[in-house]
Amino acid sequence: METYAALVVPTAGVGYCPGTAFASTTIPAGFLCPPAGFGVYEVAKNFRQDETYSWNISVQRQIAKSLAFSAAYVGTSGYHLYHDYQLNQCDPPEVALTNPFPGCLPFESINSNVSTVDFRNSQGESRYNAAQFQLTKRTSAGLTFMASYTWSKEMDNVDNPIDPYETRQELVGAGWKNGNYPQNFTISYSYDLPFGRGKKYMSGVSGAENAIVGGWTVSGITVFRAGGALLASANNGIALLPSQADGQRANFICGGQSMNNPHTTAQWFQTSCFTNPAPYTLGNAGVGEVYGPGLKNWDFSIRKAVQLGSSERRALAIEANFFNLFNTINYNNPDTNLGDSNFGQIGSDNSQPREIQLGFKFTF
Question: Predicted confidence band at 103 (pLDDT cuts at 50, 70, 90)?
Answer without folding.
Answer: low
